[in-house]
Amino acid sequence: MRVTVWNEFQHETRGDERVLAHYPDGIHTVVADGLREVLGDAVQVRTATQPEPEHGLTEEVLAGTDVLMWWGHIRHAEVEDEVVERVLRHVHAGMGIVVLHSGHYSKVFTRLMGSTCSLRWRNEGERELVWTIDETHPIAEGVPNPIQIPQQEMYGEPFDIPAPHELVFVSSFAGGEVFRSGVTYRRGRGRVFYFSPGDQEYPVYHHPDVRRVLANGVRWARPRHERRTLTADPHPLGWFEG
Amino acid sequence: MRVTVWNEFQHETRGDERVLAHYPDGIHTVVADGLREVLGDAVQVRTATQPEPEHGLTEEVLAGTDVLMWWGHIRHAEVEDEVVERVLRHVHAGMGIVVLHSGHYSKVFTRLMGSTCSLRWRNEGERELVWTIDETHPIAEGVPNPIQIPQQEMYGEPFDIPAPHELVFVSSFAGGEVFRSGVTYRRGRGRVFYFSPGDQEYPVYHHPDVRRVLANGVRWARPRHERRTLTADPHPLGWFEG
Amino acid sequence: MRVTVWNEFQHETRGDERVLAHYPDGIHTVVADGLREVLGDAVQVRTATQPEPEHGLTEEVLAGTDVLMWWGHIRHAEVEDEVVERVLRHVHAGMGIVVLHSGHYSKVFTRLMGSTCSLRWRNEGERELVWTIDETHPIAEGVPNPIQIPQQEMYGEPFDIPAPHELVFVSSFAGGEVFRSGVTYRRGRGRVFYFSPGDQEYPVYHHPDVRRVLANGVRWARPRHERRTLTADPHPLGWFEG
Amino acid sequence: MRVTVWNEFQHETRGDERVLAHYPDGIHTVVADGLREVLGDAVQVRTATQPEPEHGLTEEVLAGTDVLMWWGHIRHAEVEDEVVERVLRHVHAGMGIVVLHSGHYSKVFTRLMGSTCSLRWRNEGERELVWTIDETHPIAEGVPNPIQIPQQEMYGEPFDIPAPHELVFVSSFAGGEVFRSGVTYRRGRGRVFYFSPGDQEYPVYHHPDVRRVLANGVRWARPRHERRTLTADPHPLGWFEG
After folding, report:
1. Given Cys at both, which of B151, B190, B202, D180 links B91, Cβ 3.0 to 4.6 Å?
2. What residues does the ThuA-like domain cover (chains A, B, C, D) (predicted)?
3. How many residue pairs bridge chain A and chain B with CB atoms within 8 Å of each other?
4. DSSP state, residue C157
5. What residue in A sits closest to C176 (Cα-Cα)?
6. Angstrom distance (rounded) from CA C193 to CA C184
């Protein structure tokens, strides 16, 4: 299983100290380490970042990626449309994608959803409890119910997403808000998992239960079939009788 | 619109003082008053209770009911199977049903769901916040987001229900738990709405926002078509060509 | 209720005789006439076409439109991105949209779906039977089950759309294929209905049952709330406690 | 993986010749052979029939069953309620179930669905085409799209089931009807797959593609977690903080 962890890599490179305290080499490196920690030899992880040419997501990279993870926050608008289209094309053809936290507002995720993906938010370092709704879902395997995250940015409903294929997690925050924090979708031949915990200011991607969820999410999103572009082809009468 | 509010009517008749403080004439009378308050002349409300013959739910009563509301708690097992079948038959033929709070464990609701409807719970009089997930849903019309209920029994996930047709409300509790507190289903030709706020020990059915939700729920669940029993009938080749 | 029927208006203006035989003044005029025939004074219908400036879909026109109907086929790529974004913004804010037939491949629809919307097809003038799956759905009101369309282009599964919110119609074709021909979605605050019958070469939009479905679809898709742009706003702790 | 194939075993034992021509030792033996043929050593198959004590479905048998397959037709009413409850209890706790053809009207399936499960039908030995809607679904793996069944009983919409979790197959029949012939559900911790092809009068369970679907269905429905009965337990404040 080949995973590419993508990061916009802005908070870190501009020297935001609260971010560097937890992610000195970038959020992507910590997410990647978490996958390796949980999945071991079952996974090959590489990383890619927005400042690289083509944002590090060339046709070759995507063709060699089973699951793409996406973290972005303050540079969504600068992601090139051509790369967005390329990512969408690969998802539709079968590549899995796991979108993280503020990636809800990325071009890629809003294009997959077809909605605004707006939400309520507040950054006060509140406790987040991540409740498993569907305890038999493979993404929830091996995590406590609830997962307890001591400090997090609050994301609250209404979250403008289409009704998910599967509602895996719902979070509550110390301030009282709730959020559908783990949701799955199918788009084309690809699987989509969105997981909201993970702000840049808190060590959320070091949290062992969060790492477990991300590893489960990657396993769940991996393609089971060959990648194939879907097209609208004509079919003569009786074509299947042959 | 003709509504029948059904109550098991046990807490009140056995003299439970905490219940009688809020519902001296029974929970059903307060729920019925709430519907009249919000819907006025648009609704005719009658009540029925478990101690009555046939639990007050004769064929005639159900045939004259557009929407049935169901409140039960400690006498689920004593509800006669024949009456349960009768209610299910009417729901399948088009009668709406609104199931309240501990009615999640009633024979009627578990039969409509096909699952156990189990949940976590705690009765400590905590604050419940009822968040609207889908702000355009007619059941959420005219209520604040969130509804604030000062004291409530906690109902928590995992709630063993089938994934709802529509997820309208999710609650959080002061203790941190979350719950899918407002969910809709279609069964046969009938509409089903489950709404969890409403314990017997707290004045929840006097709460103006809760009353609004119940009125909205009744309006949403009302049948738009003639009641009709669904059967499996043979159809000859070309029957539709006329 | 204010409806705008939009047509790419290419087959007609380039003089395609098989199209002009049924739609001498454009498909949009026949669709508009059908709405007026069924809905009478309950609807105000205007039309807009791709050759007009801004494709006839200025901010002013969309602001005054409750439901937009979309027919396009061979000029999808020429629809300006700015107009597409404008339409999406209005759908997300609450405008209803009814997408017709080959509009499945339009920028607007694929952007709302987040998938490729590819399908199988064949144009041999086969009989299409449109079966109602959910007989209580308001879009199916007053139409026979099945609707019989003597001649149609075949659209067949797999149709690459997200699992619909509601599956209203499934069609079969004389050649044996099946198609999810009537599906609903929610996107943002807006309602989306896709209905596949309606090729330019057959008089499908003159068919009384098809006209009934389109009128029902418009009624179903109309907004029930004020149009409102969804944004991600910060909320301080305790903002709702007032 | 331990599978129990259950058959009402009435058509065969009363000497219905058209049935015995294809199923001389009972439908269950042919279904069981099909599973062994496709799954080989990965599966242990046993059978149980309605005439046996407790219908062959003792607590011990169910406790040792990962997936139960259910075929019944003319003796649904004679299935003992106690056995039905036992089966439901095991499904809710995690046992998978695959319901076949006329099993749509069984007590077990209608209880899992909560609806009438009525449908249209005709037995004229028509060609059925089974179209895959979701080509990436594991139940559709390795089968042609469409599967062609030369002779079948027609089952037609409207099929009164709750909207499925996943719509895997839709069939068309030579006479023009359509049917959601492969649908999945989750109930409690258990997975449910209904597959309609398979009348007693036609050799459908000898068809290699149908056998593949049944084997896929069994694999999909198998439990991934320990069997566990869901109950409603009280939880004190802060129980999860440990």
Report:
1. B190
2. 2-221
3. 62
4. S
5. A238
6. 5
